[in-house]
Amino acid sequence: MLTDEAGHHIWGAGAWPTARSVAMRPDRLAANDGRPLVPAGLVETMDVVGSKIRVPGYDTIVSAIVRAFADVRVDTAHPFREPVSNADLLLVPYDFRLGVAAAAVYVRDVVERRLAALHPSTRRRRVFVIGHSMGGLVARYWLGPLGGAPDCAALLTLGTPYGGAPVALDKLVNGFRVGGHLFRGITDVMRSWPSIYDLLPRYRAVHVDGTAQYPYTLDLMAEQGFTEAVLRGLQTHTDTDAAWAHIVDTPDIIAAFSIGHPTPLKGVVVDGVLSVTKDSDPTLPNPGWAGDGTVPADCAIPHQLTDRRAWRQLPHRHLPMPSARVVVDTLRDFSAHDTSSMRGGDSLGEPWLGVDLEETYVEGDPVTVSGLLMEVEPGERTSFWITATHRESKQRHRVKGDRNGSRFTAAFDGLPPGAYHVRISALHIPRVDDVHCDDMFGVVAL
Protein backbone atom coordinates (compact mmCIF):
# COMPACT_ATOMS: atom_id res chain seq x y z
CA MET A 1 0.00 0.00 0.00
CA LEU A 2 1.17 3.53 -0.77
CA THR A 3 0.08 6.62 1.15
CA ASP A 4 0.90 10.29 0.89
CA GLU A 5 2.95 11.86 3.67
CA ALA A 6 -0.26 12.70 5.54
CA GLY A 7 -1.22 9.02 5.63
CA HIS A 8 -4.00 9.13 3.01
CA HIS A 9 -4.17 5.93 0.97
CA ILE A 10 -3.24 6.36 -2.68
CA TRP A 11 -2.75 2.74 -3.74
CA GLY A 12 -3.65 -0.69 -2.40
CA ALA A 13 -6.41 0.03 0.14
CA GLY A 14 -8.92 -2.31 -1.50
CA ALA A 15 -9.10 -3.18 -5.18
CA TRP A 16 -12.14 -1.15 -6.24
CA PRO A 17 -11.44 2.00 -4.14
CA THR A 18 -7.92 1.97 -5.57
CA ALA A 19 -9.21 1.55 -9.13
CA ARG A 20 -11.63 4.45 -8.72
CA SER A 21 -8.92 6.62 -7.18
CA VAL A 22 -6.49 5.91 -10.00
CA ALA A 23 -9.12 6.46 -12.69
CA MET A 24 -10.19 9.81 -11.18
CA ARG A 25 -6.76 11.11 -10.13
CA PRO A 26 -4.04 9.14 -11.94
CA ASP A 27 -1.61 12.05 -11.48
CA ARG A 28 -1.26 11.15 -7.80
CA LEU A 29 0.71 8.06 -8.87
CA ALA A 30 3.05 9.89 -11.24
CA ALA A 31 6.71 9.18 -10.55
CA ASN A 32 8.08 12.36 -12.11
CA ASP A 33 6.31 15.10 -10.15
CA GLY A 34 8.59 15.11 -7.11
CA ARG A 35 5.85 14.16 -4.64
CA PRO A 36 7.02 11.16 -2.57
CA LEU A 37 4.70 8.35 -1.57
CA VAL A 38 5.18 6.23 1.53
CA PRO A 39 5.22 2.40 1.39
CA ALA A 40 2.95 1.73 4.35
CA GLY A 41 2.02 -1.96 4.16
CA LEU A 42 1.37 -4.98 1.99
CA VAL A 43 -1.96 -5.48 0.22
CA GLU A 44 -4.23 -7.55 2.44
CA THR A 45 -6.86 -10.21 1.84
CA MET A 46 -10.35 -9.04 0.91
CA ASP A 47 -13.58 -10.80 1.90
CA VAL A 48 -16.47 -11.24 -0.50
CA VAL A 49 -19.82 -12.82 0.35
CA GLY A 50 -19.18 -12.28 4.03
CA SER A 51 -16.29 -14.59 4.82
CA LYS A 52 -17.32 -17.38 2.45
CA ILE A 53 -14.87 -16.39 -0.30
CA ARG A 54 -11.56 -14.66 0.29
CA VAL A 55 -9.35 -12.95 -2.27
CA PRO A 56 -5.87 -13.67 -0.92
CA GLY A 57 -3.44 -10.88 -0.20
CA TYR A 58 0.02 -11.01 1.29
CA ASP A 59 -1.38 -11.46 4.79
CA THR A 60 -2.23 -15.00 3.64
CA ILE A 61 1.49 -15.77 3.62
CA VAL A 62 1.92 -14.17 7.03
CA SER A 63 -0.91 -16.16 8.61
CA ALA A 64 0.35 -19.42 7.14
CA ILE A 65 3.88 -18.83 8.44
CA VAL A 66 2.66 -17.82 11.89
CA ARG A 67 0.56 -21.00 12.10
CA ALA A 68 3.37 -23.23 10.86
CA PHE A 69 6.12 -22.04 13.20
CA ALA A 70 6.16 -21.29 16.91
CA ASP A 71 6.23 -17.79 18.42
CA VAL A 72 6.74 -15.84 15.18
CA ARG A 73 7.21 -12.11 15.80
CA VAL A 74 6.08 -10.02 12.82
CA ASP A 75 7.13 -6.50 11.89
CA THR A 76 6.20 -4.31 8.91
CA ALA A 77 8.89 -1.91 7.74
CA HIS A 78 7.79 1.73 7.68
CA PRO A 79 10.07 4.72 7.06
CA PHE A 80 8.53 6.68 9.95
CA ARG A 81 8.47 3.91 12.58
CA GLU A 82 11.17 2.29 14.67
CA PRO A 83 11.82 -1.35 13.78
CA VAL A 84 10.97 -4.28 16.02
CA SER A 85 14.47 -5.44 16.88
CA ASN A 86 13.64 -9.10 17.52
CA ALA A 87 11.24 -9.70 14.62
CA ASP A 88 11.35 -13.12 12.96
CA LEU A 89 9.22 -12.19 9.93
CA LEU A 90 9.81 -8.81 8.31
CA LEU A 91 7.33 -7.47 5.75
CA VAL A 92 8.89 -4.92 3.39
CA PRO A 93 6.49 -2.92 1.24
CA TYR A 94 8.18 -0.68 -1.32
CA ASP A 95 7.24 1.97 -3.87
CA PHE A 96 6.75 -0.21 -6.95
CA ARG A 97 6.65 2.79 -9.30
CA LEU A 98 10.31 3.74 -8.87
CA GLY A 99 11.82 0.60 -10.35
CA VAL A 100 13.86 -2.38 -9.24
CA ALA A 101 17.08 -0.59 -8.27
CA ALA A 102 15.41 2.12 -6.17
CA ALA A 103 13.23 -0.42 -4.38
CA ALA A 104 16.27 -2.63 -3.72
CA VAL A 105 18.11 0.26 -2.07
CA TYR A 106 15.13 0.75 0.23
CA VAL A 107 15.03 -2.97 1.06
CA ARG A 108 18.79 -2.99 1.73
CA ASP A 109 18.48 -0.09 4.16
CA VAL A 110 15.51 -1.67 5.94
CA VAL A 111 17.33 -4.98 6.43
CA GLU A 112 20.60 -3.32 7.41
CA ARG A 113 18.89 -1.42 10.23
CA ARG A 114 17.87 -4.76 11.70
CA LEU A 115 21.13 -6.65 11.19
CA ALA A 116 23.72 -3.93 11.77
CA ALA A 117 24.29 -4.79 15.43
CA LEU A 118 25.00 -8.47 14.70
CA HIS A 119 28.47 -9.94 14.28
CA PRO A 120 29.20 -10.91 10.65
CA SER A 121 29.30 -14.58 11.60
CA THR A 122 25.87 -14.30 13.23
CA ARG A 123 24.16 -12.48 10.37
CA ARG A 124 25.68 -14.67 7.65
CA ARG A 125 22.95 -16.49 5.69
CA ARG A 126 20.44 -15.42 8.32
CA VAL A 127 17.72 -14.18 5.95
CA PHE A 128 15.24 -16.18 3.87
CA VAL A 129 13.67 -13.94 1.22
CA ILE A 130 10.25 -14.40 -0.40
CA GLY A 131 9.50 -12.24 -3.44
CA HIS A 132 6.29 -12.17 -5.47
CA SER A 133 6.31 -10.81 -9.03
CA MET A 134 8.56 -7.72 -9.24
CA GLY A 135 9.51 -8.31 -5.60
CA GLY A 136 11.73 -11.17 -6.72
CA LEU A 137 13.65 -8.82 -9.04
CA VAL A 138 14.03 -6.32 -6.20
CA ALA A 139 15.40 -9.02 -3.90
CA ARG A 140 17.79 -10.28 -6.56
CA TYR A 141 19.18 -6.76 -7.13
CA TRP A 142 19.67 -6.28 -3.39
CA LEU A 143 21.49 -9.62 -3.10
CA GLY A 144 23.60 -8.98 -6.21
CA PRO A 145 24.64 -5.41 -7.10
CA LEU A 146 23.96 -4.11 -3.57
CA GLY A 147 25.95 -6.89 -1.91
CA GLY A 148 23.28 -8.50 0.26
CA ALA A 149 24.08 -12.11 -0.70
CA PRO A 150 26.19 -12.97 2.40
CA ASP A 151 23.15 -12.29 4.61
CA CYS A 152 20.83 -14.51 2.57
CA ALA A 153 20.32 -18.27 2.86
CA ALA A 154 17.75 -18.57 0.07
CA LEU A 155 15.46 -16.65 -2.24
CA LEU A 156 12.01 -18.01 -3.12
CA THR A 157 10.34 -16.19 -6.00
CA LEU A 158 6.69 -16.48 -7.03
CA GLY A 159 5.85 -15.52 -10.61
CA THR A 160 8.88 -13.23 -10.86
CA PRO A 161 9.47 -11.96 -14.43
CA TYR A 162 13.21 -12.63 -14.67
CA GLY A 163 12.83 -12.61 -18.45
CA GLY A 164 10.29 -9.80 -18.46
CA ALA A 165 6.65 -9.87 -19.52
CA PRO A 166 5.14 -8.85 -22.87
CA VAL A 167 2.13 -7.42 -21.03
CA ALA A 168 4.42 -4.59 -19.84
CA LEU A 169 5.47 -3.91 -23.43
CA ASP A 170 1.82 -3.76 -24.48
CA LYS A 171 0.95 -1.27 -21.72
CA LEU A 172 3.99 0.88 -22.50
CA VAL A 173 3.56 1.11 -26.27
CA ASN A 174 -0.21 0.83 -26.69
CA GLY A 175 -1.24 2.40 -23.40
CA PHE A 176 -3.68 1.26 -20.73
CA ARG A 177 -6.71 0.08 -22.67
CA VAL A 178 -9.95 -1.58 -21.72
CA GLY A 179 -12.15 -2.89 -24.51
CA GLY A 180 -10.20 -0.82 -27.01
CA HIS A 181 -10.69 2.42 -25.04
CA LEU A 182 -7.48 4.27 -24.16
CA PHE A 183 -7.18 5.71 -20.65
CA ARG A 184 -4.84 8.56 -21.48
CA GLY A 185 -4.23 9.80 -17.93
CA ILE A 186 -3.34 6.37 -16.56
CA THR A 187 -1.17 5.69 -19.61
CA ASP A 188 0.85 8.88 -19.13
CA VAL A 189 1.35 8.07 -15.45
CA MET A 190 2.50 4.49 -16.14
CA ARG A 191 5.01 5.74 -18.69
CA SER A 192 6.58 7.86 -15.93
CA TRP A 193 7.31 4.75 -13.82
CA PRO A 194 10.83 3.32 -14.15
CA SER A 195 9.36 -0.03 -13.11
CA ILE A 196 7.47 -0.59 -16.37
CA TYR A 197 10.77 -0.41 -18.28
CA ASP A 198 12.35 -2.90 -15.85
CA LEU A 199 9.59 -5.40 -16.68
CA LEU A 200 9.95 -5.43 -20.47
CA PRO A 201 10.80 -8.76 -22.16
CA ARG A 202 14.48 -9.65 -22.22
CA TYR A 203 14.05 -12.13 -25.05
CA ARG A 204 13.31 -11.64 -28.75
CA ALA A 205 9.63 -11.22 -28.04
CA VAL A 206 8.69 -8.95 -30.95
CA HIS A 207 8.34 -10.21 -34.52
CA VAL A 208 8.86 -7.71 -37.33
CA ASP A 209 8.67 -8.92 -40.94
CA GLY A 210 9.32 -12.47 -39.79
CA THR A 211 12.36 -11.55 -37.67
CA ALA A 212 12.31 -11.82 -33.87
CA GLN A 213 13.72 -8.72 -32.18
CA TYR A 214 14.46 -7.48 -28.68
CA PRO A 215 12.13 -4.66 -27.56
CA TYR A 216 14.97 -2.16 -27.14
CA THR A 217 15.90 -2.48 -30.84
CA LEU A 218 12.45 -1.52 -32.14
CA ASP A 219 12.04 1.63 -34.21
CA LEU A 220 8.76 2.38 -32.47
CA MET A 221 10.63 2.73 -29.15
CA ALA A 222 12.70 5.56 -30.59
CA GLU A 223 9.66 7.05 -32.31
CA GLN A 224 7.82 7.31 -28.98
CA GLY A 225 10.88 8.50 -27.05
CA PHE A 226 11.23 5.41 -24.88
CA THR A 227 14.69 4.21 -25.91
CA GLU A 228 16.70 5.83 -23.09
CA ALA A 229 14.39 4.52 -20.36
CA VAL A 230 14.25 1.07 -21.97
CA LEU A 231 18.05 0.86 -22.01
CA ARG A 232 18.19 1.91 -18.35
CA GLY A 233 15.82 -0.92 -17.52
CA LEU A 234 17.95 -3.36 -19.50
CA GLN A 235 21.05 -2.14 -17.65
CA THR A 236 19.39 -2.99 -14.34
CA HIS A 237 19.18 -6.64 -15.41
CA THR A 238 22.68 -6.60 -16.90
CA ASP A 239 24.09 -5.30 -13.62
CA THR A 240 22.18 -7.94 -11.69
CA ASP A 241 23.42 -10.82 -13.85
CA ALA A 242 27.01 -9.56 -13.68
CA ALA A 243 26.92 -9.24 -9.89
CA TRP A 244 25.45 -12.71 -9.40
CA ALA A 245 28.15 -14.21 -11.61
CA HIS A 246 30.75 -13.01 -9.09
CA ILE A 247 29.03 -14.09 -5.87
CA VAL A 248 31.26 -16.68 -4.22
CA ASP A 249 28.70 -18.25 -1.88
CA THR A 250 25.47 -17.98 -3.85
CA PRO A 251 22.17 -18.13 -1.94
CA ASP A 252 19.87 -20.94 -2.96
CA ILE A 253 17.15 -19.90 -5.42
CA ILE A 254 13.75 -21.58 -5.70
CA ALA A 255 11.60 -20.36 -8.58
CA ALA A 256 7.84 -20.96 -8.44
CA PHE A 257 5.90 -20.52 -11.67
CA SER A 258 2.66 -21.57 -13.35
CA ILE A 259 1.94 -23.04 -16.75
CA GLY A 260 -1.23 -23.53 -18.76
CA HIS A 261 -2.95 -20.18 -18.22
CA PRO A 262 -3.11 -18.26 -21.53
CA THR A 263 -0.58 -15.45 -21.16
CA PRO A 264 0.70 -12.63 -23.40
CA LEU A 265 3.82 -14.17 -24.97
CA LYS A 266 4.86 -12.21 -28.03
CA GLY A 267 4.43 -9.03 -30.01
CA VAL A 268 3.94 -8.60 -33.74
CA VAL A 269 4.58 -5.32 -35.56
CA VAL A 270 2.65 -4.71 -38.77
CA ASP A 271 2.79 -1.32 -40.51
CA GLY A 272 4.36 0.21 -37.41
CA VAL A 273 1.61 -1.01 -35.07
CA LEU A 274 2.42 -3.40 -32.21
CA SER A 275 -0.01 -6.16 -31.25
CA VAL A 276 0.73 -8.34 -28.21
CA THR A 277 -0.85 -11.78 -28.35
CA LYS A 278 -1.21 -14.97 -26.33
CA ASP A 279 -0.10 -17.06 -29.29
CA SER A 280 2.77 -19.47 -28.74
CA ASP A 281 6.21 -17.90 -29.27
CA PRO A 282 8.80 -20.25 -30.79
CA THR A 283 11.65 -18.12 -29.40
CA LEU A 284 10.81 -19.33 -25.87
CA PRO A 285 12.40 -22.60 -24.70
CA ASN A 286 8.99 -24.09 -23.85
CA PRO A 287 6.48 -22.27 -26.07
CA GLY A 288 3.59 -24.52 -25.07
CA TRP A 289 3.86 -23.73 -21.38
CA ALA A 290 2.05 -20.34 -21.52
CA GLY A 291 2.25 -18.94 -17.97
CA ASP A 292 0.29 -17.58 -15.02
CA GLY A 293 -1.82 -15.17 -17.08
CA THR A 294 0.68 -12.32 -16.62
CA VAL A 295 4.22 -13.74 -16.66
CA PRO A 296 5.29 -16.41 -19.18
CA ALA A 297 6.41 -19.58 -17.40
CA ASP A 298 9.81 -19.55 -19.11
CA CYS A 299 10.37 -15.98 -17.92
CA ALA A 300 9.65 -16.88 -14.28
CA ILE A 301 12.74 -19.12 -14.11
CA PRO A 302 16.15 -17.40 -14.08
CA HIS A 303 18.24 -18.71 -16.95
CA GLN A 304 21.06 -19.61 -14.55
CA LEU A 305 18.75 -21.95 -12.59
CA THR A 306 19.27 -25.16 -14.52
CA ASP A 307 18.69 -27.50 -11.55
CA ARG A 308 15.06 -28.54 -11.91
CA ARG A 309 14.92 -29.59 -8.27
CA ALA A 310 14.69 -25.86 -7.54
CA TRP A 311 11.70 -25.37 -9.86
CA ARG A 312 8.24 -25.32 -8.29
CA GLN A 313 5.28 -25.56 -10.66
CA LEU A 314 2.04 -24.12 -9.27
CA PRO A 315 -1.59 -24.21 -10.47
CA HIS A 316 -2.28 -20.57 -9.48
CA ARG A 317 -2.76 -17.53 -11.66
CA HIS A 318 -0.46 -14.58 -11.01
CA LEU A 319 -2.35 -12.61 -8.37
CA PRO A 320 -3.21 -15.50 -5.98
CA MET A 321 0.31 -16.97 -6.04
CA PRO A 322 1.18 -15.67 -2.54
CA SER A 323 -1.44 -18.05 -1.13
CA ALA A 324 0.44 -21.11 -2.45
CA ARG A 325 1.52 -23.65 0.15
CA VAL A 326 4.96 -23.72 -1.47
CA VAL A 327 5.96 -20.85 0.82
CA VAL A 328 5.53 -22.74 4.09
CA ASP A 329 6.73 -26.03 2.58
CA THR A 330 9.98 -24.42 1.43
CA LEU A 331 10.53 -22.66 4.74
CA ARG A 332 10.11 -25.99 6.50
CA ASP A 333 12.63 -27.59 4.16
CA PHE A 334 15.23 -24.97 4.98
CA SER A 335 14.51 -24.81 8.69
CA ALA A 336 15.05 -28.58 8.80
CA HIS A 337 18.22 -28.26 6.68
CA ASP A 338 16.68 -30.76 4.27
CA THR A 339 15.84 -29.83 0.70
CA SER A 340 15.15 -33.37 -0.48
CA SER A 341 11.44 -32.66 -0.85
CA MET A 342 11.99 -29.91 -3.41
CA ARG A 343 10.01 -31.01 -6.43
CA GLY A 344 11.01 -30.27 -9.99
CA GLY A 345 9.72 -31.42 -13.36
CA ASP A 346 7.00 -30.25 -15.69
CA SER A 347 3.91 -31.77 -14.09
CA LEU A 348 1.94 -31.07 -10.93
CA GLY A 349 0.67 -34.63 -10.90
CA GLU A 350 -2.83 -33.56 -9.85
CA PRO A 351 -5.74 -31.95 -11.72
CA TRP A 352 -5.89 -28.17 -12.06
CA LEU A 353 -7.40 -25.49 -14.29
CA GLY A 354 -5.64 -23.30 -16.84
CA VAL A 355 -7.77 -20.16 -17.20
CA ASP A 356 -7.92 -17.30 -19.72
CA LEU A 357 -9.32 -14.14 -18.11
CA GLU A 358 -8.66 -10.45 -18.74
CA GLU A 359 -7.91 -8.07 -15.88
CA THR A 360 -10.48 -5.45 -16.90
CA TYR A 361 -13.66 -5.30 -18.99
CA VAL A 362 -15.88 -2.42 -20.14
CA GLU A 363 -19.42 -2.20 -18.81
CA GLY A 364 -21.79 -3.59 -21.41
CA ASP A 365 -19.22 -5.90 -22.99
CA PRO A 366 -19.45 -9.63 -22.24
CA VAL A 367 -17.02 -10.87 -19.59
CA THR A 368 -15.57 -13.97 -21.21
CA VAL A 369 -13.81 -16.76 -19.35
CA SER A 370 -12.32 -19.87 -20.92
CA GLY A 371 -9.92 -22.57 -19.92
CA LEU A 372 -8.72 -26.14 -19.88
CA LEU A 373 -8.76 -28.95 -17.32
CA MET A 374 -5.20 -30.22 -16.88
CA GLU A 375 -3.69 -33.57 -15.87
CA VAL A 376 -6.91 -35.61 -16.02
CA GLU A 377 -9.67 -36.42 -18.48
CA PRO A 378 -13.11 -35.15 -17.43
CA GLY A 379 -15.83 -37.65 -16.62
CA GLU A 380 -19.34 -37.85 -18.04
CA ARG A 381 -20.72 -35.80 -15.13
CA THR A 382 -17.97 -33.16 -15.23
CA SER A 383 -19.27 -29.60 -15.55
CA PHE A 384 -17.68 -26.16 -15.40
CA TRP A 385 -19.16 -23.28 -13.40
CA ILE A 386 -17.95 -19.70 -13.07
CA THR A 387 -19.04 -17.52 -10.14
CA ALA A 388 -18.32 -13.77 -10.10
CA THR A 389 -18.94 -11.89 -6.84
CA HIS A 390 -19.08 -8.10 -6.72
CA ARG A 391 -16.58 -6.75 -4.19
CA GLU A 392 -18.87 -4.11 -2.65
CA SER A 393 -22.46 -5.27 -3.13
CA LYS A 394 -21.59 -8.98 -2.58
CA GLN A 395 -23.99 -9.83 -5.43
CA ARG A 396 -23.15 -13.17 -7.02
CA HIS A 397 -23.41 -14.02 -10.71
CA ARG A 398 -23.07 -17.65 -11.80
CA VAL A 399 -22.94 -19.19 -15.27
CA LYS A 400 -22.34 -22.69 -16.55
CA GLY A 401 -19.52 -23.09 -19.03
CA ASP A 402 -20.01 -24.61 -22.45
CA ARG A 403 -17.91 -27.75 -22.42
CA ASN A 404 -15.94 -29.19 -25.32
CA GLY A 405 -13.98 -32.14 -23.99
CA SER A 406 -11.53 -30.77 -21.42
CA ARG A 407 -12.10 -27.17 -22.54
CA PHE A 408 -14.80 -24.72 -21.53
CA THR A 409 -16.01 -21.22 -22.38
CA ALA A 410 -18.46 -18.97 -20.57
CA ALA A 411 -19.60 -15.35 -20.60
CA PHE A 412 -21.34 -12.95 -18.22
CA ASP A 413 -23.57 -10.27 -19.72
CA GLY A 414 -24.56 -7.02 -18.03
CA LEU A 415 -22.21 -7.06 -15.03
CA PRO A 416 -22.29 -3.70 -13.21
CA PRO A 417 -19.03 -1.78 -12.69
CA GLY A 418 -16.80 -2.82 -9.83
CA ALA A 419 -14.16 -5.28 -8.73
CA TYR A 420 -15.06 -8.96 -8.78
CA HIS A 421 -13.71 -12.11 -7.24
CA VAL A 422 -14.13 -14.96 -9.70
CA ARG A 423 -14.07 -18.66 -8.91
CA ILE A 424 -13.82 -21.13 -11.78
CA SER A 425 -14.93 -24.61 -10.72
CA ALA A 426 -14.70 -27.97 -12.44
CA LEU A 427 -17.14 -30.28 -10.66
CA HIS A 428 -17.26 -34.08 -10.51
CA ILE A 429 -13.69 -34.69 -11.66
CA PRO A 430 -12.43 -38.28 -11.56
CA ARG A 431 -10.04 -38.94 -8.65
CA VAL A 432 -10.52 -35.59 -6.88
CA ASP A 433 -14.20 -34.63 -7.31
CA ASP A 434 -13.84 -30.81 -7.63
CA VAL A 435 -11.10 -28.41 -8.79
CA HIS A 436 -11.14 -24.62 -8.35
CA CYS A 437 -9.19 -21.61 -9.59
CA ASP A 438 -9.59 -18.12 -8.08
CA ASP A 439 -8.73 -14.68 -9.43
CA MET A 440 -10.05 -11.13 -9.80
CA PHE A 441 -11.20 -8.82 -12.59
CA GLY A 442 -12.74 -5.38 -12.87
CA VAL A 443 -15.60 -3.87 -14.87
CA VAL A 444 -15.32 -0.16 -15.64
CA ALA A 445 -17.87 2.37 -16.88
CA LEU A 446 -16.70 4.68 -19.66
UniProtKB/TrEMBL annotation:
SUPFAM superfamilies with a match to the protein in the record: alpha/beta-Hydrolases
Entry-linked InterPro entries: AB_hydrolase_fold, LACT/PDAT_acylTrfase
Gene3D superfamilies according to UniProt: alpha/beta hydrolase (3.40.50.1820)
Highest taxon above the source species: Bacteria
Pfam families documented for this protein: LCAT
Single GO MF descriptor: O-acyltransferase activity
Any one Gene Ontology BP term: lipid metabolic process
Name of the protein: Lecithin:cholesterol acyltransferase
Lineage of the species this protein comes from: Bacteria, Bacillati, Actinomycetota, Actinomycetes, Mycobacteriales
